[in-house]
Amino acid sequence: MIEAFTDWFHRTRVDGRPWLILGKGPSFGRLAEFGPDGFRLLSLNHVVRELPVEVAHIIDLDVVDACADVLQSQARVLVMPWYPHVRNRVGRLTLESIVPGHPVLAALAAEGRLLWYNLSTAPDARPGSPVVPVSYFSAEAALGLLARSGARVVRSLGVDGGTAYGAAFDDLKDKTRLNNGHPSFNLQFAGIARSIMTTGVDYAPLTVESPVRVYVGSQEAQMLAVKVLEHSIRKHASLSVEVFPMHQAHIEFPTPREVRNRPRTPFSFQRFTIPQLAGYHGRALYVDSDMQVFRDVREIWTLPFQGAEILAAREPGESGRKPQFSVMLLDCDALTWNPESVVGYLDRGEFTYEQLMYEMKLASHRADIPPEWNSLERFEEGRTGLLHYTDMTKQPWISAANPRGYLWVRGLLEAVESGFITRDYVEEHVRLGYVRPSLLVQLDERKEEPATLSRAARALDDGYVAPYQQMGPHGTSGTASALGRIKAQLRHLYEYSIVKRVLRRLSGSTAT
Description:
The protein is built from 19 helices and 20 strands. It is α/β, with parallel strands linked by helices and 512 residues long. Strands 1, 2, 3, 4, 5, 8, 9, 10 and 11 form a nine-stranded parallel sheet that branches. It has a six-stranded mixed sheet with strand order 13-12-14-17-16-18. Strands 15-20-19 form a three-stranded mixed sheet. α8 links the parallel β10 and β11 (202-205). α7 (138-149) packs parallel to α8 and α9 (223-236) packs across α14.
């Protein structure tokens, strides 16, 4: 008898223990440090020879043959695709047709210990089991199989990326290591990210602090940008992520006595509440809301502090911009910030606003985060990790003039298509004036480039006053600042005035 893995999974789920996937990477050697107790164990390929496991997951018949002497004693069950692979290629025979001529598989099947599932490489899918996607390596398939069967928490050891095996598998490094022709095990992370994104499974290596805690400097008017940013982080993240829009914490900062030391935006000081919000424990990543991610955040989340309290994204010397602390990795165990202490430093004259924001005088720091993780209005396909839309007047959600705005709109379209953001949410933010009206037309017509919109659609932005334009000096809102309110009203009157219409006709411009 060959049972579907999903049926076996639900039949045997008698406790809430998380799963631990064991691979052949170097971190497998740390198993004794973490201990397998408390987990349901699933081994990948040859790992089954090293210890007893509940599930041995093997895609290739070659590996079954190589582990034939231990499978029956070391694995409670063996799970394979309905169409097993042979020498890294999907075979033409089903598992059912192979079993009678294979003594080990026949014995396991007779004992009810052989399970099957549909792998995406197969020519067709057998009813009764979801199709599990795989692009490169078995770790992707194993996580996808567990998640689609109902596992909610999965950890791993030996699923490391790179090109190395752990010491226990030295005898295999010249036989099976990357023998499918791929350059690195890093390729598996994209598939792992897809499983996390599509199933919601809580996954991380045991060797990495999880989840990735991302704190976003924000206010309510920026929440659509925050959600597009969050979707872009999750899309690429190969371990679980939590995202916190910081204005929702409702932590108030005292007002510095000196006007020159007061925050320039409502969220300038939010980053200094992170250690408190994190309970002064563990890692935390700070980013601004006007950003979009294109690579796996794991790359910077796992950087070593090596004695520093903060790691920041460095800026290329030729850019001519001030140092940026808008992408920071914080060691919250080492930081004792709170709103009162930060403002106290300013009020006592121990440092200025500029020293606080541009030199980060509050903590020891190093610029160890590569510049591609804070690319200021720059984008290079395959290299940029994080694009920062720093030009406030041209941020894609409020302006159709950003030359890289198509990337952000593409991200919005993907987030809506996946159900992460609803159209109603976008429409509500248009109604509230948080984002430009033409953005909703771009969404409905699925047009990344605003230049492809009709003249009538682009004209919807005539008279649009962005939230930042209603902001007074030192981060006060238009309603709180008389000067800011007057300026906003004058801009609004000008946008609708006959003067502007005449000037637009004379210039022949239809841009916003």
